[in-house]
Design brief:
Elements lengths: L5 E5 L2 H4 L8 E2 H4 L5 E5 L6 E5 L2 E5 L5 E3 L5 E2 L1 E5 L4 E9 L1 H8 L10 E17 L9 H5 L2 E18 L10 E8 L5 E18 L2 E5 L5 H5 L7 H8 L1
Parallel strand pairs: 1-14
Antiparallel strand pairs: 1-8, 2-7, 3-4, 3-8, 4-5, 5-6, 9-13, 10-11, 10-13, 11-12, 12-13
């Protein structure tokens, strides 16, 4: 199991851009590195959130499933939870959330995770429809997505912050996923309003970046031709 100062990441967001969406790590392997995380399945099969060691998938039909050990992913990150209470939040939109998580600063130069448990007066999420090989680009695949909205829902927002310097390896800034306590809604967060909740934070000083070197497509691909930053900006 990982150490609490380490963020473990398999794959990069950059490899999704040209459509390298093959699953190159199993859930069993990922869970050896932590108990809390986010990711996506092969072919962008839904949106993943791992809480208390249980991996959930919010699929494009609006259903939430617990995933088996053999589920594969092209991209995921995970860590061993050791969150510290930072602040209470009320009537917070994504901007107010970001300001609180950054403690009023405009940026952070290290990776950290934020967990908000509370009552959300509004939640808007998305989940991408699973695609099959040969895979389209990230932008084409992401167009086939389902949008979900819910009012007055209790749940957990799990976010990872990456410094701008690492945009491409991850999403520069905040990458938010959500799961309702009753599993009525989940996925990649597009917008929200938090009525009230507790914001907990966990800093990392180490990024452990794992790459799919056994995947020939990844090893042979020339990323210099991909407009990585712009595509991630538009799709995430």
């Amino acid at each position: 199991m990982g150490q609490t100062n380490v963020l473990y990441q398999h794959g990069t967001l950059a490899l999704l851009v040209p459509g390298l969406l093959a699953g190159t790590l199993t859930m069993k392997e990922l869970l050896q590195h932590g108990d809390t995380g986010i990711g996506t399945g092969e072919g962008l099969n839904g949106e993943l959130i791992i809480l208390d060691g249980i991996p959930y998938q919010a699929d494009s039909f609006g259903k939430v499933h617990v995933l088996k050990n053999d589920f594969t992913m092209p991209f995921a990150n995970i860590h061993l939870a050791d969150f510290k209470f930072l602040t209470d939040l009320k009537d917070a939109d994504p901007e107010k959330f970001a300001t609180a998580a950054l403690s009023g600063k405009t940026n952070s130069n290290t990776f950290f995770s934020v967990r908000v448990k509370g009552n959300f007066s509004y939640m808007k999420t998305r989940a991408v429809v699973k695609s099959a090989p040969p895979f389209d680009t990230l932008e084409e695949t992401a167009k086939k997505q389902s949008i979900f909205e819910k009012h007055d829902v209790e749940g957990t927002l799990l976010s990872y912050y990456s410094p701008t310097l690492f945009h491409g390896a991850a999403v520069g800034g905040f990458h938010n996923h959500f799961l309702a306590n009753d599993h009525s809604i989940g996925g990649h967060v597009l917008d929200f309003k938090l009525a009230s909740g507790k914001l907990d934070i966990q800093l990392f000083d180490t990024l452990e970046q794992h790459l799919p070197v056994d995947n020939t497509e990844f090893m042979d691909h020339d990323f210099s031709k991909d407009n990585i930053a712009d595509v991630i900006e538009r799709t995430e």
